Amino acid sequence: MMEPLTGAAQWRERVRRVEDAGATTLQVSDHFDRSPVSPLVALAAAAQHTDRLRLGTLVLNNDFRRPAVLAKEAASVQALCDGRLELGLGAGWMTDDYTVSGIVREPAGRRIDRLADTLALLHALRDSAGGPVDLERGSVGVAALRDVPAVPRPPTLLVGGGGPRVLGLAATTADVVGINFDVREGHVGGRAARSASAAATDEKVALVRRAAGDRRPVLHLMLYWAAVTEQPEEEAARRIAAAGLELEPAELLASPHCLIGPRSVLRERLCELRERWGFGYVSCYEADAGVVAPLVTAG
């Protein structure tokens, strides 16, 4: 979750805290409830206050922006941050986002089709070195589209998801694949909770590797729960109750998305994320940065 944005000085200080913590990337979500700020606008502002951090969206709901408009906005932020943008995209899933925005939440297949169309346009722009691009495909119909402004190199592309079709699409199109829950229910319910297990993560990572073939995308994981504690089961029980999850504490603690326990155990878990699954980097909520950053920077 993000704290509310109250002004330019507050945002500048928060960006500097993230940088001082040793993070490599500042990421902003697109959910209405979890990110009370426009992601690309916030990242463009952040770019004026850091020249080291990479700046990412985790992730944009593809249904919120027309593909050509997104391409223009991404190119603009890429120019403003001197090539440090990591453009994260997803098919959209949260029912509440669609309710608040007034956008119809269509069946998953149609949303994923539109995501594939957007990715096709972004790759066409990459292949053309910025345009012009003519493309008629599904939800995309553009003529003589160029990157505006022109950028020396395109943003790094992250595609995140938890279902087979999105993960397969990500494996064949993205520089970074975000391994997430299966949230086709539109909320974090029983299916999502079960898909957070180590065994389910084994299956998702294997699917990505098969689909990627000779490609070697970086694998990314979101840490949804993090705490240093000598009573991990009690902390896990509190997190489960707060989120209304259909899990036992032991199940939550075994999830690769969970980093709750004594410091020494958490360092071992971070090593497992790299060695067992091959995750290249992890993200956490802003409130958990003080827990996660020292563990990562310590080795």
TrEMBL record:
NCBIfam families in UniProt: F420_MSMEG_2516
Example of a GO MF term: alkanesulfonate monooxygenase activity
Domain Luciferase-like, residue spans: 9-240
Record-linked InterPro entries: Lucif-like_OxRdtase_MSMEG_2516 (IPR019923), Luciferase-like_dom (IPR011251), Luciferase-like_sf (IPR036661), SsuD_RutA_monooxygenase (IPR050172)
Name of the protein in its database record: Probable F420-dependent oxidoreductase, MSMEG_2516 family
GO terms, biological process: alkanesulfonate catabolic process
Organism encoding this protein: Pseudonocardia ammonioxydans
Keyword list, A-Z: Flavoprotein, FMN, Monooxygenase, Oxidoreductase
Protein origin, superkingdom: Bacteria
The keyword NAD is assigned to this record: no
Classification via Pfam families: Bac_luciferase
